[in-house]
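Thread: sanity check for a docking pose with flavin-adenine dinucleotide

Original post by kr_44:
Hi all, I'm comparing my docking run against an independent structure prediction. Below are the sequence and the ligand SMILES. Could someone generate the full complex and paste the structure tokens? I mainly care about where the ligand ends up relative to the chain.
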Amino acid sequence: MRSRSTVYERLAPPAAVVDAALAPSRHAVFWLEDAPGTSYPALTGDGSADLTVVGGGYCGLWTALLAQRRNPGARVVLLEAQSVGWAASGRNGGFCEASLTHGEDNGRCRWPAEYDVLDRLGRENLDAFEADVSSLGLDCQFERTGALSVAVEEHQVEWLRESPDFLDAAAVRREIDSPLFLAGEWDREGCALVHPARLARELARVAAGLGVEIHERTTVTSLETPARGPVRVGTPGGTVTSERVALATNVFPSLLRRTRLLTVPVYDYVLMTEPLTSAQLASVGWANRQGLGDLANQFHYSRLTADDRILWGGYDAIHHRRVDGAHEERPATYRRLASHFLTVFPQLEDVRFSHRWAGAIDTSTRFAAFHGLTAKGRVAYAAGFTGLGVGATRFAAEVMLDRLSGLTTERTSLEMVRRKPLPFPPSPVADLGIELTRRSLDRADHRQGRRNLFLKTLDRAGLGFDS
Ligand SMILES: Cc1cc2nc3c(=O)[nH]c(=O)nc-3n(C[C@H](O)[C@H](O)[C@H](O)COP(=O)(O)OP(=O)(O)OC[C@H]3O[C@@H](n4cnc5c(N)ncnc54)[C@H](O)[C@@H]3O)c2cc1C
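Reply from moderator J.T.:
Ran it for you. Here is the predicted complex with flavin-adenine dinucleotide included:
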């Protein structure tokens, strides 16, 4: 008889064990605490620039840095509302994937004719990222370890069988030892790991060194694009006028009204353990330090840090109408995460969690970034990376710079770049639709991956979501 429960429900540890593991955890982002960096002054007074970049996450930082590198004499100003890398860029899993399309299935389904080009451009982007880490001296704990996808339910094993990188249960457990792992696939080339907050702060350091003027605690409150003359970017401390503007504000309310319905915030939750002792680490193996993810619709991702902690995130994905720090504390989700961690690694029952945090995923209806150009070619924007922006933001920065320079390149010619996703409907319709999708995905995970009518309809409309 087929089971209607997931392995996490069947093998859940006792509540007291979960509580003990979570008890010492603080609500704080480990990565941000572990990332030294300078602070940059707020903007005071008016100024001018060749390029103004709004947003100090990866997307804005790469845009500013690459703009300065393309044109060393240019005056580039970057304005960040809080501090460099405080948002998604400083709190993510640090999986730097080659994929620009949120995986092959999503990419082939949406852009079948150009998928092979997208795949190549994504790999070239990751190689260029690695080359930049080395040539710019970005101290961000970059490790090109690849990623291991694991089957934790019988029906998922079949999804991996045809893969040239297929590992059976014994082989996958030689890499990372969990009694839950039934099979795996190790993509050695398509993914690297980084320390997310160090990457953001290092990009800022190098950009500033090249001449980019960075202002933190500087919220852009207005964007004026007169028919003629420069664009005016307004902040409480002053106005910057410039020929070109790049908007890299991700999941935050866009300065362009027309793009506001193209993303919604979906909260993702993370736990970090204390550093493992050598005996604890030996009980898991993990000598090759790959990124780890499972194949469920509601999936977990996991990885080691430089000091041998384990990051454990994913599964619950909670939609909210706007970004708000109050959404980050969700005890039921942290308990579920801890329970699942202890189910996967029962040998780590004596390990404790030191940190818990959450962040808003920049979700778009096509699960991959969109790229735009407006105001007669003077304002470019990119957002909607849907939880896979560590690598793709560098590509988006190149796209914005190509377009702001009026260049036609292989990147700017892509259908993926030229066409926008469908917008989300306004609330409350979007809230209902997203909640129904989440419940349907959960149900699919309880039914050997079988998708219900609602998910099949979304799939046919190009709105389906696999993982
Ligand atoms: C918990 C979590 C785990 C994730 N894991 C991964 C992963 O493992 N791999 C992966 O590839 N991706 C992952 N992601 C997604 C990835 O972090 C993001 O796609 C990426 O960081 C987006 O970068 P960004 O620069 O576009 O946005 P952000 O980092 O959000 O930066 C946007 C910045 O714009 C600023 N801003 C907004 N509005 C204004 C304004 N009006 N004026 C001035 N400044 C403004 C904000 O303050 C913010 O600093 C994860 C995300 C989360 C939340």
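The chain has a mean pLDDT of 92. Hope that helps with the comparison, let us know if your pose agrees.
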